[in-house]
Amino acid sequence: MNAFRTIAITSPHPVEGEAAAICRLLEEGCWRIHLRKPGYSLHAMRQLVEAIPAECRPRLVVHDHFGLCGQFGLGGIHLNRRHPTPPPHFTGTVSRSCHTLEEVRQYKTLHAYVFLSPVFDSLSKQGYRAAFGRQELEEAAEKGIIDSRVIALGGITPDKFEYLRRLRFGGAAMLGSLWNRPRASAFPPG
């Protein structure tokens, strides 16, 4: 990853017109959409994926029900505390959630990219405060811990993109700023 990438993470809850909203975000320049629906059954997740046009599916990443990846030609899987390891023989793209700089050091070379969170106070999880101070992030960037394989997550709004670029993040993932309030285009071109 060389350019600053923007990633959308779905609301964990059903959203009216969600498949259309996902397509619109991709059209607006979003690089990937992470389908994070921890309470969804396999059937419910399959219905969501089926509602999304086939041409959009290679840019979708699932956090659960990894078998859908091969069935629908999805873009990859995302590992987290619920699912810390990929399925046996999985050969697609893998990303991972990290909540410390040590986890970033440990995992970023093993996966296509990692999320570091929460970088700012969360917009979607009340009381979920930033875990890193400005100086700590700047030092991590200087040491090369933060680089193009690290995606900032937590309290991300488009007005923070330039600051994150200066810190050498490879991109930003957004959830609350997309689904919690009306918006114009969240992803500037390029």
Q: How would you explain this protein's 3D organization?
A:
The chain has helices at residues 18-27, 42-51, 67-72, 101-107, 134-142, 161-166, 176-179, and strands at residues 5-9, 32-35, 60-62, 76-79, 93-98, 113-116, 150-153, 171-174. With 190 residues, the chain is α/β, with parallel strands linked by helices. The chain has seven helices and eight strands, in the order E-H-E-H-E-H-E-E-H-E-H-E-H-E-H. It has an eight-stranded parallel beta barrel. 36% of the residues are buried. Residues 182-190 have low confidence and may be disordered. The protein is globular and about 45 Å long.
Contiguous helical run count: 7
Shape: globular
Proportion of β residues?
A: 15-25%
Terminal Cα span? 13 Å
Q: Give helix and strand order, one letter per element, not per position.
A: EHEHEHEEHEHEHEH
Unreliable segments (pLDDT under 50, ≥5 consecutive)? 182-190
Largest sheet geometry:
8 strands, parallel, barrel
- Proportion in helices: 25-40%
| Mean pLDDT, all residues | 91
- What strand line-up does the widest sheet have? 1-2-3-4-5-6-7-8
The number of distinct β-strands equals 8
Radius of gyration: 16 Å
Structural class computed from helices and strand pairing: alpha/beta
